Amino acid sequence: MVKSVTAFAPATVANVSCGFDILGFAIDELGDKVTVSLTDTPGLKMVRIEGDGGRLPYEVDKNTCSVAIQAMLDKLFFDKGMEISLYKGLPLGSGMGSSAASAAAALVAANALLGNPFEKKDLIPFAIESERIACGAAHADNVAPSLLGGFVLIRDYTPLDVVKLPVPKGLFCTLLHPHLELNTADSRSVLRKQISLKDATIQSGNIAGLIAGLFQGDLALISRSLKDVIAEPSRALLIPGFYELREAIKAAGALGSGISGSGPTVFILSPGKEIAQKVGQISKQVFEKIGLGVDVYISEVNDKGAYVVE
Amino acid sequence: MVKSVTAFAPATVANVSCGFDILGFAIDELGDKVTVSLTDTPGLKMVRIEGDGGRLPYEVDKNTCSVAIQAMLDKLFFDKGMEISLYKGLPLGSGMGSSAASAAAALVAANALLGNPFEKKDLIPFAIESERIACGAAHADNVAPSLLGGFVLIRDYTPLDVVKLPVPKGLFCTLLHPHLELNTADSRSVLRKQISLKDATIQSGNIAGLIAGLFQGDLALISRSLKDVIAEPSRALLIPGFYELREAIKAAGALGSGISGSGPTVFILSPGKEIAQKVGQISKQVFEKIGLGVDVYISEVNDKGAYVVE
């Protein structure tokens, strides 16, 4: 029997513009690794956390890795123990699905260690449990794409209804992480509680267009549909240079941009690597001009999701 | 040169549940016919209207047929005239896209008469002009599916962005036209002007699921997605038996139901003709119990749209 498994889970972009609270997609390479080992001592134990600057908890009822695995084990008969090591590749609180990637990697590793009693899709509810701990809300728009890869629609939660969507060939994402702190609670509190009927209808048209564009591989339709009239008008105010950046990247051939999760990270979708790199450069200049440093990541949209490394 | 062309355009269901104001689909058989003939006397003339019970206007600036054709002719050099005959197959004010079918048939006939200078899709703006006359609002969710057939998404109006969606095989529609009058203005006025953020998000998830279901041919997903939390809760109150009907048809295997346009017609989507017929019978019983007569039409979803008959 395998005694130790390491899995990788990718960063994700949730709230994809008009897909506010229902859509997410996964990024290549950037992500977290988790190693899970079997022990004879019952119970879970966080034995190592690296790359978090000492900010993440070792308590098993507080760390997203152990919370997710415990939710899974509660569905099985399991009388041994597991030791968990987390290697953060993702910055915390950046809006790139950091806690979700940890949970997804932990679940895929633990599931493999037990001989894969669950399909990947069936791991989503366990990862949602860990999001409740990490973010205070049991949302799935990061954990589902981190596990499954590609674009994932969360149609409903009661019961959970998750739909994997196709990824058009050559779709690249540029992620911009400006060096500013944004409190998720603040980012939530700026949202309007009431939406006009007109805005709700516009949002419906755009999310419908985005889904159709993904299925048809119609990048122009995707570009026209990447408009969020619900969350973005409030949240963009928290990110200096947001609209100036949009003008610049669209002029350079990008399909569109939006806030990743609740920010401050901004995502840009582009038709191909070359434009994705070019808009990365342009973005640096835009943020530099307003005196803001920025990390830039460029990646194809990842259709694979979390996977076992060794 | 052909001197006379007759075209048929089908009935349509707009506001397809969660597709409020952005989605419509076309029905087979049930619809309007329009004959357009060339004359040497310049100008348009409505020469005959049948099947309307004398309710439709002969004035060329008020009839949807002539208004639509005039909008088309304004884009061309045309120094002759046309005589227009309208044969209504659709009841007026029923919520089945009656005015839209007249305009669509008129445009397809006139376009053919001129040697098809326009593609069908390019006729939509002219038909929208006629809807402005007929309904007081320049909406496209009836005219677009009546012209193009199938499910059609109206993503935006400025500029017009119309996306034809695939129709899953074997998808049938049962249309129920209860014998009650519903004023479109009333039906509009009951709508809430403000929507909660939560409801807007639920609606987004459902329209996204419906579009994905249409592309994947996933009837179960279509069924789960046919939920309207925005318009239906208000409008259903104007249609006695609406929710009782839904329970009954879902128990009989239908995918779901909703209000066609602004009502009072109700549409039911079913996987196959047999269930579509069965739920037609059940619907009659439900409406009879509350003392309401009902006309029942059963049809495959029409993927062809308006076409030249002779």
Automatic annotation (TrEMBL), chains A, B:
One GO process term, biological-process aspect: threonine biosynthetic process
Residues that bind ATP: 91-101
Cell compartments where the protein resides: Cytoplasm
HAMAP family registered for this protein in UniProt: Homoser_kinase
Catalytic reactions of this protein: L-homoserine + ATP = O-phospho-L-homoserine + ADP + H(+)
EC number: 2.7.1.39
Ranges for domain GHMP kinase C-terminal: 211-280
UniProt-recorded name of the protein: Homoserine kinase
One term under GO cellular component: cytoplasm
Domain GHMP kinase N-terminal: 67-150
InterPro entries linked: GHMP_kinase_C_dom, GHMP_kinase_C_sf, GHMP_kinase_N_dom, GHMP_knse_ATP-bd_CS, Homoserine_kinase, Ribosomal_Su5_D2-typ_SF, Ribsml_uS5_D2-typ_fold_subgr
Organism lineage: Bacteria, Pseudomonadati, Bacteroidota, Cytophagia, Cytophagales
Pathway info: Amino-acid biosynthesis; L-threonine biosynthesis; L-threonine from L-aspartate: step 4/5
Recorded family membership: Belongs to the GHMP kinase family. Homoserine kinase subfamily.
A molecular function GO annotation: homoserine kinase activity
Domain of life: Bacteria
Source species: Rhodonellum psychrophilum GCM71 = DSM 17998
Class of the enzyme per the UniProt entry, highest EC level: transferase
Annotated function: Catalyzes the ATP-dependent phosphorylation of L-homoserine to L-homoserine phosphate.
Gene3D superfamilies for this protein: 3.30.230.10, GHMP kinase, C-terminal domain
Keywords of the record: Amino-acid biosynthesis, ATP-binding, Cytoplasm, Kinase, Nucleotide-binding, Threonine biosynthesis, Transferase
